[in-house]
Write a structure and sequence with these properties.
Helix content: 40-55%
Radius of gyration: 22 Å
Strand content: 5-15%
Number of helices: 15
Shape: globular
Largest sheet: 7 strands, mixed
């Protein structure tokens, strides 16, 4: 096959897919760092902490025991039981191992769910700002993402009215994420109860509840959809994993908890996609859930809370930036409307948030992600899952880069003054 055959031989679904903008931004920063530039990379949602040694020790012990073979497609019985028991304990819901599928990260659970349920043209409601995987995974699986923009005044959360207006006879799923990437928004119990009231009017709509950042909160523990509306359990798939809470991103273990018929369908698809997830990764995840790293989750949460406060204070003091204080997760969502149209020292203009992200990287070596990648502009997303030193450096560098811009209209004002 020669390159001239492409993209014509690619399927429509493949042509709908794009490289993750977070990965793209990180790759560009890595290239500049390889060239010798001093780069502070705040693009990835990856804890800077190492996986706790007790969890790594459990993985080593599993290797010594010979746990290097295939596991059941849906995951080991022990891990599925631990997930179900933890889920029931935290949220007061009945769940057993048959309600659980373990997969190669939460992202694969989302893909499997959409693959197992979407037909061409089925609609999935996604509120913006969103994690880019949500709409792209819908497109790859033949569905149509219905993007509903949220407002700062609503805390970047979906309102019941907006949900009701978005539902059509083709709606198959609603995706909710709390704590949310990229905004850091956390739904309260009353807000979830209000959304649940709308969902009861549409009994065929499934709900994908992404709670991957459940353990990272700053004011109070996040409310859970099924605590607010336990009667919806027969159509909710909760997605979680060990990546964020236990600093285990590379172990690639996530899971879904949901109704048994749906979990069985995901298992069937997974059996043809990847078979079961890593045996050693599952042993490590089981150790994490059984308390091998007691105290780590809370220590990390408090560190993220401290960093969140520093980012809000530091960036909030920079003219032109509007930092929306996160309630959870480890991202700062920054409004940059006041900088659109500003002039660079070289005479160029900041036309949009993409230009501004480029300027921060070019001028001061700070890598962040443009808000357009999350479906809402003009914003930037900055990850504070980074060292305190990197965060301090980024605040100082961003301040210098923004200060170097001339506000929109300043050239005209200078000309008027000169005349």
């Amino acid at each position: 096959m020669t390159a001239s055959l492409f993209p014509g031989v690619l399927s429509r679904r493949a042509r709908r897919a794009e490289l993750s903008p977070i990965a793209a931004a990180g790759a560009r920063a890595a290239r500049l760092a390889a060239e010798g530039r001093s780069i502070v990379t705040l693009t990835s949602g990856e804890p800077d902490f190492d996986t706790p040694s007790s969890i790594k020790d459990a993985a080593g012990a599993a290797l010594e025991r010979g746990q290097t073979k295939y596991t059941p497609t849906a995951g080991t019985a022990a891990l599925r039981r631990a997930v179900a028991q933890g889920y029931g304990r935290r949220h007061g819901l009945d769940a057993d191992a048959s309600n659980v599928i373990v997969s190669n990260g939460g992202k694969q659970v989302i893909y499997l769910a959409l693959n197992a349920t979407l037909d061409e043209g089925d609609e999935v409601i996604v509120s913006a700002p969103y994690w880019p995987t949500f709409p792209d995974a819908v497109r790859i699986n033949g569905g149509t993402p219905v993007i509903v923009e949220t407002r700062a005044g609503d805390g970047f959360k979906l309102t019941p009215r907006a949900l009701r207006e978005a539902i059509t006879p083709r709606t198959k799923w609603l995706i909710l994420n709390s704590p949310a990437n990229p905004s850091g928004a956390v739904y309260g119990a009353d807000e979830l109860a209000a959304l649940a009231a709308v969902l009861r009017e549409a009994p065929r709509v499934l709900v994908l509840w992404d709670e991957m950042y459940e353990e990272i909160w700053f004011e109070q523990p996040p409310a859970h959809l099924l605590r607010a509306a336990p009667d919806l359990a027969h159509r909710v798939l909760a997605v979680n994993g060990v990546s964020k809470a236990y600093a285990m991103t590379g172990w690639r273990i996530g899971w879904g908890v949901g109704p048994k018929p749906l979990v069985h369908a995901l298992e069937a698809v997974q059996s043809q996609v990847s078979s079961g997830p890593s045996s050693v990764g599952q042993a490590a995840a089981l150790a994490a859930l059984e308390g091998a790293a007691d105290g780590f989750v809370e220590t990390a949460r408090l560190a993220y809370a401290r960093r969140a406060q520093r980012v809000v204070e530091g960036l909030g003091a920079i003219a032109g930036l509007r930092v929306h204080a996160p309630q959870g997760a480890f991202f700062a969502w920054i409004g940059v409307e006041d900088l659109i149209g500003a002039a660079r020292p070289d005479g160029g203009r900041i036309a949009d948030d993409d230009d501004l992200a480029d300027w921060l990287l070019e001028a001061e070596g700070v890598a962040v992600v443009r808000g357009a990648a999350y479906g809402l502009s003009p914003y930037l997303r900055l990850s504070f899952a980074a060292s305190d030193a990197d965060i301090e450096a980024a605040i100082a560098r961003i301040g210098r880069a923004v200060a170097a811009l001339a506000p929109a209209g300043s050239d005209a004002r200078r000309r008027e003054e000169a005349a």
